[in-house]
Amino acid sequence: MAPDAAGRGYPRVALFDLDGTLLDSAPDMLATVNRMRQSRGMGPMALEALRPVVSKGARAMSAIAFPDLAAEKLPELVPEFLDIYRQELGRHSRPFDGVEELLGALESAGSTWGIVTNKPEYLAREILPQLGWEGRCAVLVGGDSLAERKPHPLPLLHAAQVLGVAAPGCVYVGDDERDIVAARAAGMPSMVALWGYRLDDDDPLAWQGDVMVQHVRDLLVPGAWPVAAGPQ
Questions:
Q1: Backbone angles phi, psi at 170, to 5 degrees
Q2: Contact, 173 vs 218, CB < 8 A?
Q3: From residue 174, how far is each of 1, 44, 80 by CA, in Å?
Q4: What is the pLDDT of residues 13-50, one digit of tens each?
Q5: DSSP classification of residue 19
Q6: What is the C-alpha separation between 205 and 216, in angstroms, rounded?
């Protein structure tokens, strides 16, 4: 897509969170926790109950699925969660409406895009071929790829380094406060994906992202993106 009337085009590099930003993975997560509940003689839970915490990770989802379990016992459920989730991976999830169009527009404009997620890297890599993204995603950093994970800036800084671009020359899009905190610490412009997963008491305005975005297709407008440093 050509630059807008103000001469602004897409950023040279767009980095995205995965779950809740590019991928509506909540149905896979729901299938996972419901299998865990079933094995314990419990009935299924509703998607609406789990969806707000999907971006918080396996421990948070286990806490919602098993509210009577003591907090110190939650880590014990994580390996089981990840094992079952791997079996459900991609069976029920799909990209958010407009994501394929957006990624195509970025590629057509000559921009590079990648993923920085707190999902374990092996799970993120396994789902890319199901989406047809394995040859298109220029960099993938998982939650266990490095010594630190978001909200630490290291994963974003590493992704930028791999792509040969300074952090201020990238833009990061995410739906969780950790995404925006990490981007700010990395000196990277950020966008808050309001279509993603949030708790009722979350206040995205307090995260201090550079731009708030209501719908994926809003990103099809080059002028909607914050200005990244360096050549665009």
A1: -110, 165
A2: no
A3: 22, 29, 27
A4: 999 999 999 999 999 999 999 999 999 999 999 999 99
A5: B
A6: 18
**b/e map of 150-176 (b: 16 or more CB within 10 Å)?**
bbbbbbbbbbbeebebbbebbbbbbbb
Return the sign of the alpha-carbon dihedral for residues 52, 18, 57, 163: negative
Closest C-alpha to 144, from 121, 128, 116: 121
- d(CA 213, CA 175) in angstroms, rounded, equals 10
What length does the chain have? 232
**Sequence-distant (≥ 6) Cβ neighbours of residue 111 within 8 angstroms:** 10, 11, 12, 13, 14
Count of other CB atoms within 10 angstroms of residue 89? 18
CA dist 214 to 20, 46, 118, Å?
13, 25, 23
Q: Which residues are catalytic?
A: 17
Q: What is the DSSP string of 62-98?
A: HHHH-TTS-GGGGGGGHHHHHHHHHHHTTTS-EEPTT
pLDDT digits (tens, 9 = 90+) for 50-73: 999 998 889 999 999 999 999 999
How far is Cα 116 from Cα 170, in angstroms, rounded to an integer?
12
